[in-house]
From TrEMBL:
GO MF entries: [protein-PII] uridylyltransferase activity; phosphoric diester hydrolase activity
Positions of the UniProt region annotated as Disordered: 627-646, 770-791
Lineage, broadest ranks: Bacteria, Pseudomonadati, Myxococcota, Polyangia, Nannocystales
Biased amino acid composition, Basic and acidic residues: 627-640
GO annotation, biological process: regulation of nitrogen utilization
Protein name: Bifunctional uridylyltransferase/uridylyl-removing enzyme
Gene: glnD
Organism: Enhygromyxa salina
Purpose of the protein: Modifies, by uridylylation and deuridylylation, the PII regulatory proteins (GlnB and homologs), in response to the nitrogen status of the cell that GlnD senses through the glutamine level. Under low glutamine levels, catalyzes the conversion of the PII proteins and UTP to PII-UMP and PPi, while under higher glutamine levels, GlnD hydrolyzes PII-UMP to PII and UMP (deuridylylation). Thus, controls uridylylation state and activity of the PII proteins, and plays an important role in the regulation of nitrogen metabolism.
UniProt keyword terms in alphabetical order: Hydrolase, Magnesium, Multifunctional enzyme, Nucleotidyltransferase, Transferase
Cofactor(s) listed: Mg(2+)
Amino acid sequence: MNLANEHEQPIAPLREALALARQSLRAAVTEGEPGGALLHRYSERMLELITPGAAQAVGRAGTEFGKLAIVVVGGLARGEHCPHSDLDLTVVCTEPGHEGDEVFGGWIRDLTHPLWDAGLRPATTVQSPEAWLAAAAEDLSLCTALLDMRFVAGDRQMVDELASEAHRRFFGAQRAAFLQRLLDEMELRKRRYGATVYQVEPDLKFGPGGTRDLSIFEWALMARRNTPEPWDPATVIKAIRASGVPRRVARLLGDARDTMLRLRAALHLVAGRTQDRLNFQYQEGIPSMLGFPDLAEHPADAELVAAIEACMQDYYRSARDVLRYGSRVFSRCQPPRALAELDVRIDERFHIVDRRLRHYGKDPFADTPVLGLEALAIARDLNIGLSGPTLDAIVEAAIAISEGDTRLADDPEAQQRFLDLLVDPSDVGSPTPVELCHEVGLLERVIPEFSPSRGRMQHEGFHVYTVDQHSIYAVEFLKAIARGDHRKDFTMATAVHLGISDPRPLYLSTLLHDVGKAFGDQLGEGARIAALAAGRAGLGAEVASRCEFLVAEHQTMPMLSQKRDLTDALLVRDFAETVGDRRTLDELYLVSLADMANVSPEYLTSWKLTLLDELYLRTAAEFAKQGRRETSARRPRPDEPEGLPPRYYSLFDQHLRRHHRRLLDELRSSETTTLVDVAEGSGAMRLTVVTHDHRGLLATLTAGFADLGLEVVAADVFSVPFEPRIALDVFRVVSRDPSHQRPLEAEFATMIQAHLAERLARAPTGASLREALPPLPNRARGRQRGAATKVRFSEDPAATRTIVDVETIENPGVAARISRSFAALGLDIEIARINTEMRRVDAVFYVSKLDEQQRSELAKAIRANLRTRRR
């Protein structure tokens, strides 16, 4: 048989047709055409383009491979193909070539290479009917492919028989097992991608409410049919209504589907490739791609942020509807139960049907919206869910409360019921009752000022959740602390929470700690709203004042612990005076911790937790010693380093001080120029470097660490004031690549020691420190591109030291360049704290007090050393 490809589909016309199809799709997206319709048309065009080549390939094969057909599966088969998605082709044949079969392999290449060359992405699999059916029993993706399967070319009868056999085995009357497999897959995705739609960089395919969840209810609808029937994108609403859900639910779900598909198509077009996660860099291109009205060609930052916010609100609303109503459609697709549903009466208002709370009557919530809060409490107490009709009725009742209507906010019963939900640590589940209270719209009716936080983006790059979801997760974190779920990871917090007698101020302040962001004044407005909410809740003036303080100061403990010298007794004393008493300290610590723990999974490192705990303990000790007589400063023991400042003896325990003395003695008595000691610490390695002191030493050491892939997060720098002067520098470092396997501590110390000794031997000195460094790579992304290096100055509480804060874009060796700037001006750094996150560096340095001229020169030197290349 001759399988020559002289009749293969011409590539150039196919490439041109593909470009025109994508151009037409782009225009449809920008003009606002519903996503379902525009992707349906685009998918049909893709099928038109690939069908001639597929038919030619089948013709060339003849009977060489037995019965043969080519089908498409996945989004292309369902009419939801995005412009840069894979083209899922399956070759079905009764006699496929074995592995290494050159004839069959050549035929596959002739089928797919023209598609690749034209700019498509064919993902081709080969199946025999029997093997496909057998594998589908174990592989869910192969099972859903049988459901999606759409004929393109070849033996149609074989494809129809395959579809009928698949339906007999897995779908129709046998669909229960298939639907359970879909539920299991949803649970796995929830663990990986999270349970909430309110993420600032959502995954439009696999994230909650994404296009995979669209596929889930579409597969369920196809599986419930009595006969195999391909998905018809033109009759989506009709198919949804066939499940038995109300017309309103079908319309809302259809609209949500259109929005999600249009948004995912826009993301592909903005990225110019397959892309599922809507990252910040792509969010900037989405408004113009969607034809956002009145958006300038080069909008100002504020205008662009507002447009992105509007687009993301559409996403959150639609993803939420996909989750809410898609699950309802899915449940209607389950096979009928053998036993009748159990109906248990609770009272004259509610009963339980199939472990779901239902209300009696047409709509009791419209006249008594507080009943919605009671329904949530009953469902929580009985550990059951809300039925779809009851959930809808509560939502409609909340929507009916117009803006400015404060009947729930002013209702003492509503306030009390909400506070009970807010502080109850037993409300576990997904969603929790507090999340559900927010989901149905009751939270923002009880606290109207919370409404602007719903789905509000956080653009600074640290947060992974929107303002509202971050705040709710912070509350849920406190409840987990209260239950003892985190007693191993957050021992201090668990102990502190045990001493909280009235959790209401703590939990209300935690819920509202970021509410001011929506009003342009996070701390000031947030504090005012917290006091107002506490007053409405009837907590009294003293508690309202405390809530106001907790929100106003919730950033203080993280800032002080990460950016200031915690051994500074005056700083701790001033902070204690600001806090006022131990109870407020306990609450402020827990609010701060809950906030930090829910910024992102990586934000609260064990190093940051250690610093926060240290500030808490030092402040608690300050409260404990108030009224006691001050003790005189301690003197070093004979086996400890001498001549160092008091903060050294406060910073390190006796064991470490003795170890430092041994290192100093070893350096003095040997010909070694540098000694390095490595120890694993809490969240970071502790590297102690003992070497001969000289100008620019810190810059050389930090550059050496950067060479080895280590980032400095903290440095405490000391110089023993005897000749010859010896530097005793203690660093906290983390690996730039956490997955990298490090050698044992002793081997690692030897390696670092050798590298630093080599670095020190050729370190710049004197005037060479002032020489200009080459510019850094420009690694700014998105709105970072306009951000310049910021240098700020302040003083410590005693006004004896200058604190230098530096913010800049992340680059390898940034710490070394900043340290070199100090050395060039002859300034000795006492303390360094360096935090690198989300491509940004926040660094803090303590030096002796600087005058205005020194500050100006230092700022100029830092900016010069951190300049980047022009793009």
